[in-house]
Structures are given as C-alpha cells and as structure tokens.
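To make this tangible, this section ends with a sequence with its structure tokens:
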Amino acid sequence: MSIGFVIVTYNSERVLPACLKSIPQGYSAVVVDNASKDSSPEIAKSLGASLIVNARNLGFGTACNQGAKALATSHVFFLNPDATLAPDAVRTIEEAIAHYPGVGAFGPAIHINGKRQKFRTASYMENRGKRQTWETPPDEVAEAGFLDGAALVCDRELFGELGGFDERIFLYFEDDDLCFRIKSSGRRLLYIPEARVLHERTASSGKSLRLDYFRSFHAAKSRIFVSDKHGIPIDIRGEKRRAAFLLLRSVATLNVAKAMKAWGTLAALRKPLQ
C-alpha cells in the first residue's frame, strides 16, 4: 500500500509552494501543468515534484489522468494546488486504507476558512439532478455518496479500470461522475473526518472577472453534459430564463462579478451539447 500525489496547476504559483510543502517527505508527487503563464512549472521542479507540462489547457480530469498514469503507487491522492494537508492527514488516510480493504475511494475532511465542508450523501447522478442536500459532516468514518475532487484518494487500479475521470468533462462534475461510477462498480466511498485538508476554494488560478465567466461557463456546460450522459432531465429553457434574469439584475445593480457569472452560464446554455 502506497500513496502518490497528483496536483493539476493552471497559473497556481501563489498557492503551489504551500501545497507541495505540506506533502510529507518520501511521497511521490506529480504536478501536471495546464499551460500556465506563470512560474508554476518552475516551482514544481524546485520543490522536487515530477512535472508534466501540457502545451494547452486540457482540463482538470484529463490532467489528473495523465498524472495518475505516471504513478506506480497503489493509491493516488488528487489534491488541488490551493489545498494543504494537515500534518497527520496522510498517516490517517493510510490507516484507513489498511483498515478498510477494497474501498474504492477515500475523502478527507475539507476545511474552508476554518469550517468543515458540508457532507453529501449522494452524487448529482444519484439525486437525479435534484437540488443537492448538504449535511453536517459526521465525526466518525462514514460511507458517502460523493467525495470532493479537491482532495480525493482513489484506488489507482480501480481508477484505471474505470477509465479515470471522463475526459469529455473539462471542469466541474468530473468528481460526481467518478464517484457515481465507483459506487456503481460495487466499491464504497469512505469519508475520513480525522484526515484534515485546508482548502482555499477557487484560489488555484486566482480570481478575476475572466475567471468568474470561465468557471460559470464550464460548471453549466459540465452539468448539461453529465445530465445527458446519465439520462437526467434538465430544463434548458428554464435554466436560460433564470440565467438571463440574474444577468439583467446583476447589470442593474452594477454587480459585475455576478453579471460575468450569469453571462458564462447563459453562454453555456445557448449551445448546450456542442
């Protein structure tokens, strides 16, 4: 049993050093860089990580698959560059792997701004597209329906057998899709509350109006794709009306950030499956 890390970067120079330095000595780490324009690749090399550099941004899932194939460990720990491991997180995950053989994936407790992220008992697919229910996270090891891809530990052999992340998904919902396929294969997802990861959400590539648009566009695009893939009904017309209303209201109130997000959603909905 062994763990290797995969970290996908895209202009992540501000957060990458802390992420890599939080990985304990002796563990292999692969950084897959999606055509950053900053010094992310140089930082990865200087801190001892193996490096794969893509000529263009291939998306999160594709880059994760590249990194997983470069490892020779029994488990792969997908970790966002804007996340850092608590000192005992890896040891706690290793203990869980040893104690619960045959589990498909493990998820640590992700802390955002000092608070534990809420717990989801079902993936988007299991909920059939209905509004997700977020619950108070359990204090003991528990089965989950969804584990966040920001910090996700997968059985690498199973991950390969399932084809890894669906590379048709550029960004968002790739973790929902993978978790659903892991559970459908008969393997469990386990939440490990004593393994802590600190996450500075949406900080991996910085913050800007362009990124507000980019993230909203791909979140909507990916939701449409996985809905179609898994036969989940989605009201495109209704979604368009809501996005257009939000765009108009945001413009009227001079909320530029919300306007960019609504514009990104609306752009994705105009040609949903192209």
